[in-house]
Amino acid sequence: MQRYNHTKMKNLEDLVFDDAVERPSKSQKKRDMHALQEMGAALVDLSPERLDRIDMPEELRRALGEAQRLSRHEARRRQMQYIGRLMRDIDPAPIREALDAVRGASALETARQHRLERLRERLLEDEAVLTEIGTAHPGADITRLKQLRRGALHEREAGKPPKNYRELFRALRELENER
């Protein structure tokens, strides 16, 4: 049986505690890893079109696609752990910002949505707004916007579902994304 020198052990403990001040605790590391896995789960829940808009490493993109394809619980759980492991090697801040934007949680995205809604309402009230849109966006398909405007006004009068109203918003959003 080996005996330890208590003075030596005390010095070793001092080293361990000195390192602990500089590094995050094991519990903090676990919380961080779980947060990355939750972010990965949020990415898996997005549509492929929205995932394409987010800048990320190709290996992570493939892993997310695989997780979306899996339906068995255990296989999906393992894939989610793998995604969390991949996310530890990248900077999660840009992905978190993109997720916030997709969810509409970012203040800039919310302000942008409100601005587009006001533009759509102005367009429905006055067709002259099309000139402003044409000036701001030279490549805009003004004819299509006119058709969507007329359709939205007709839907509103007839009490029909707002299909053209929503499509008009999408068209305005696409124009702004082209900037």
Overall mean confidence score, pLDDT: 85
CATH superfamily placement of the largest domain: PSPTO4464-like domains
Q: From the coordinates shown, what is the CATH architecture of the largest domain?
A: Orthogonal Bundle
Q: Pairing-aware structural class of the strands and helices? A: mainly alpha
CATH topology value of the largest domain = Diphtheria Toxin Repressor, domain 2
Q: Which spans have pLDDT < 50 for at least 5 consecutive residues? A: none
Measured as a percent range, the helix fraction is over 70%
Number of separate strands:
0
Total helices: the number is: 10
Give helix and strand order, one letter per element, not per position.
HHHHHHHHHH
Domains, number: 2
Principal-axes geometry comes out as elongated
Q: Tell me what portion of residues adopts beta-strand conformation.
A: under 5%
Q: Report the span from N to C terminus.
A: 75 Å
Text of the CATH class of the largest domain: Mainly Alpha
The largest β sheet comes out as:
none
Overall radius of gyration: 26 Å
